[in-house]
Design goal:
heterodimer, A: Alpha-Beta Plaits, MutS, DNA mismatch repair protein, domain I, 5-stranded antiparallel beta sheet, elongated, B: mainly beta, Umud Fragment, subunit A, 2 domains, two-stranded antiparallel sheet
Chain lengths: ~160, ~140
Amino acid sequence: MADALVLIDANNFYASCEQVFDPALLGRPLVVLSNNDGCVVSRSSEARRLGIGMGRPYFQIADQLARHGVVVRSSNYALYGDMSQRLMSSLEAWLTELEVYSIDEAFGRLPRPRDGDLSAWARELRVTIRRNLGLPIAIRTIRTAGWRPHRWRRSGEWVHG
Amino acid sequence: MAPLHGACPPLRLPLAGESVAAGFPSPADDYIDRGIDLNEALIQHPSSTFFLRVSGDSMIGAGIHDGDLLVVDRSLEARPGQIVVAVLDGAFTLKRLVRHNNRLRLEAANSAYPPLELHQCGDVQIWGVAIHVIHPLGRHG
């Protein structure tokens, strides 16, 4: 049977990395700003729910963030790079092939289970990464037939949301 | 808290004898022809191992001092008897996980700190298991 292809990405990667090392941030609205605190490049789920837009210039929304009690962090790329390296090297053990796509995304290949169901594998991987690194990840399968890279977001099928 | 860089080349230093008699090292011990790399000796799971700086004296009785460097492995399942980094009310705390009267609690190694009964605490999570402490003996340089 053909191998399964998956796309794995870390949720709210920069914000999640900040939360690993500062547990006071867990469950709180948090945004991470780009270089020189220019604009919002990562939002915790709580910040997303407040409707804080990705890429918004900080100076335009500083008042809104303060009103909602949103924690604001400058980006720490040394930390994110280290956590990315840990994530990717952890994933290697779970896949026969790994293609790192960005700091928080990777494509992977693995033998498709006999019944074709990847959900048990995906659940175990998510639990392991959450425990070992403190990072939440999402895993989705990729349909190979007619699959085009720029369309994966629509054609991707969630294995375990 | 510091990142752990996996790219460092191993530094193998020879092991002098199998043990050192506390008091006087046996002069008969020859250097044994195998090296020890500290990263290898202290870290089994590089991708899930983190360094934490200890602050406070609540674990002094376990030989963990203020300012020591702690090696913490997140991939290990915390078992009673182990020293763990826990998250309590949004803050890190270093304590020993103990089963007491069939309930789990976090105990300091310092009688000035009362034990924390887990069932009475709100939100407690085990962040990782402390596997080594690096403690400097006196000041150097």
